[in-house]
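Dear colleagues,

For the upcoming journal club I promised to circulate an example of a predicted protein-ligand complex. I picked one with oxalic acid because it came up in last month's discussion. The inputs are reproduced below in full, followed by the predicted structure.
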Amino acid sequence: MTENKTVLAWLEEMKAMCQPDNVVWIDGSEEQLEALRAEAVETGEMIKLNQEKLPGCYYHRTAENDVARVEDRTFICTPTEEEAGPINNWMAPDEMYAKLKKLYTGSMKGRTMYVIPYSMGPIGSPFSKIGIELSDSIYVVLNMAIMTRIGQKVLDQLGNDENAEFIKCLHAKKDVNPDDRYIVQFPQDNTIWSINSAYGGNVLLGKKCFALRIASYLGKNQGWMAEHMLILGLENPQGEVKYICAAFPSACGKTNLAMLIPPEYLKNKGYKVWTVGDDISWLNIGPDGRLYAINPEAGFFGVAPGTSVKTNFNALESTKKNTIFTNVALNNADNTVWWEGLDKNPPKNCTNWLGEKVDGTTYEGNLAHPNSRFTAPAINCPCISSEFENPQGVPVEAIVFGGRRAKCAPLVYQSRDWQHGTFVGATMASETTAAAAGAVGVVRRDPMAMKPFVGYNMATYWGHWLEMGKKLGDKAPKIFHVNWFRKDDEGHFMWPGFGDNMRVLLWILNRCAGKVDAVESEIGYLPKPEDIDLTGLEDENVDIKGLLTIDKQVWLEDVANIEEYFAQFGDKLPKEMTDELAKLKANLSK
Ligand code: OXD
Ligand code: MN
């Protein structure tokens, strides 16, 4: 399918190491994919779901020990440890290659190696990048076919230039042994090696491994940014659409925000939200000097539990056809799927995510794994943006950072400028919830929501943000911070969240357009309470003033925590970050 000598030489080398019985090139044709689906059903790797209710949908279960990304087994193998930085796992590249080569040797004996050429971003976009994943899993092929653009057209785009850039990705399921599971990025070699897992984030190498870890490294060297951000377009009653990128740590409602449904009052006025992306943004400076975002992905790899008609109608609709479900529960009565939070009717005749037949109405444990997923084509989404395939991307008006903070952050504030905004992103944090393992309410710092995804030293990455700000100058998007999770003294959430978050987005866009004033505070610009439109809110008693207050004592405690956090980066920490921290501390101590 290609005569590119670099591709072919690499393939030969990987074949010689993994020793598959067969090699199959994925051409991207529906015919070939359909044959693979049939094969996966025949071997039991996938189950075909009710084709009347869920046309084109399949079900897959992973091993019990292989249900999530494994951050402790994820490595950034830059030539020096300092380049990977203090919050990434690191091993010298030679040492890691040697260790992994032993594991890969003969790992595909008796199996087929699939060669999956894929593009992150629309094929032919100046901002897109190409990868080739070698994998011994049909599940990976079929998921990659949803999550990325695959096949012959990608190889045609790559062409025969031996120096053309592509990311070399190798995945072997091997025996799914967690003790020998490795997810390894070699940024200087454009290489990703993943072994002993068959779970999404560890094996769909275009996603976190390439589109964030490797891409963030490429972005630093090439003058662009790869960010863990959704992209949404907000259309006003005049039909103008403005775009916002937003980064949140997990369990903060990112997918819900990306597919937000405006509250009735705003819907009736003519406001709409369009989804460009739900997870990753690639940001480049366009010909007019503004920042443009593309979504490098073609599908959603969303968490199923908690997704319902009420919480995220658009995500649910996206899963109604051509979707692969992983580790949810099966309703054996009609061969459909179920998960906690879908509705209040767990199936009586149920197979849980472990493959056990149970009575779902009385079963005590989780029927679906809490991290069970749907892999759905983005084009299924009822609110997918008309710009989704735009090779130039969409111009970004605002960047929004967010976290789950019970007491610290106000509902929304604006940074003073790009440098301060970079600091706001760098000091992002979230408090752990009862849903996650470990203590509840512990502050976890997750800069730009990139903690598990930055492909080099986090402090150098902040330096790259500052550089980008200098290049963008006064064309830079404005940077904001939101907190949907503020609690009152009784521990109740103070803000309704979900669709009503649109009210905050409107204030953000009004600020970008210079339509509203703000109040200068110790931490940045706060809205005047009357500038957040609360008309038609179900709860008329929302304490908007309370949501916008700053408790200096709580903030000073956070400053102490940030000082400690920053200390680990030593002299790699950009001086601008230290200056911003000092300014914040001084403002709060006045
Ligand atoms: C994801 C994540 O799966 O951020 O998107 O963990
Ligand atoms: Mn994510």
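Two points we might discuss: The chain has a mean pLDDT of 96. DSSP finds 17 helices and 30 strands in the chain.

See you all on Thursday,
B. R.
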